[in-house]
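Form P-L/3: holo structure prediction, ligand adenosine-5'-triphosphate.
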Amino acid sequence: MQLDLSVLAPHAGFLWRGAILTAEVCGLAILGSVVLGALVAIARTASSRWLRGLAAVYVDLFRNVPFLVQLFFFYYGLPELGIYIDAFTTGVLALSIAGGAYASDAIRSGILAIDPGIIEAAEVSGLSRRVIFTRIVLPIALRTSIRPLGSVLINMILTSSILSAITLNELTGSGRIVASDTFRPFEVYAVLLVAYAALTWTVSLAVNLLHRRMNRGITQAVA
Amino acid sequence: MLAIEKVRKVFGATTVLDGVELVVEPGEVVSILGSSGSGKSTLIRCINGLERLDGGRITVDGFNVSKPRELAEARKRSGTVFQLFNLYPHMTAVGNVMLAPVEVLKLPKKEAEARARRILDSVGLGPRADAYPAQLSGGQRQRVGLARALAMEPRYLLLDEVTSALDPEMTAEVLGILAELARSGTTMLFVTHEIEFARRISNRIVFLDGGRLVVDLPTAAFFSAAGGMAHPRIAQFLSKMQKD
Ligand SMILES: Nc1ncnc2c1ncn2[C@@H]1O[C@H](COP(=O)(O)OP(=O)(O)OP(=O)(O)O)[C@@H](O)[C@H]1O
Ligand SMILES: [Mg+2]
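OUTPUT (holo model):
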């Protein structure tokens, strides 16, 4: 068996579109899960017991149910209730909701690690709760949670391959089609391996850059 | 006027503040002395609304800190400097100082930054204005903490052992600035273990003992044999502090 990529040439455009679709879905879901994760992290550290409970239920639910089941529920289950969402939107939503549960964990532990004195200083200076959260709590929490958050996001990219199960021809879905058309699974999946690695590598590079930027000022030596 | 009336605070079964009465008029420097655990920090935290009162009333220029609607106004009128600085670690010195003026006083960014740099300059940190807290020495950090409070132009400055985390040299740095502020008429409520310094800058000294405010005297009277020293607890406290 020899790797002969030329057999894939006629299908390159199709695979490329699949890769773009994966990137789009993941890009949106990264945004969605970080925003959702931040909101849920607020709820989980809120003073209202009711809010904390609700957030805990959400996190437990979506972490303890297989992603495929969640996906099928949204795509095949909800139409029974008259709720129809297309495959692309379902994919983004499902990934955001599942990713949000994990992201909230990472962000929450970052919030809990903040020295309460810092927040008290902000309170007594008269800053509103919203400003305290967006300008102080979140940026400080993200400094420590950006790396764990990065692993969550990379996991999400890997999980996105499951979206082929709801007819979304993202990278894995297109790969399977091309593999069965050409009978060249070796070449096809070799390409997919490289493509996913490139995608996750890009994200981890971005996370590293962000980490360095956010931790500017504490990584340097003390004067 | 900062008015503390019959203030009571309990933590669980322990009464930490018990009927505390104290009035600070604009322009006064009042030092709070007392041994560890006597309730000094708790009193400061009641004034700036970090602790809820269990009795009595605190008003800052008439605004009651126990009323959520008035607390914001009360907080605009007082500034707190903390023992452990509590700087925002992700912001530079200027960023720390200008945040509240922009967000609370709604100053335009440029104006707030100019004010922040001017104040940092006045505490000797002009050249370090763009450094992050982790890049500053303890004394420099506390001067940023002071500048952050001053940038809000508070009527009352609340200081809770602002030098006790600093070595003697850095302590001198910070006390020098406080003395300057006292001379220029800044109103201060000053919790400290620096007895000599308190004696030098205060108009009045109050002594807390087990949550009770046992004396409230003009500085000279506090240190006189017939005044504060007539109280065995105060005499004991002062002789112990002077030994250290
Ligand atoms: N959050 C809290 N929960 C329970 N007890 C508390 C709390 N904060 C303070 N206390 C108790 O209240 C008492 C007064 O504490 P406070 O910190 O006001 O003393 P202090 O006079 O500032 O002492 P120090 O000189 O050591 O700073 C202490 O007995 C302390 O243990
Ligand atoms: Mg104290």
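COMMENT: The mean pLDDT of chain A is 91.
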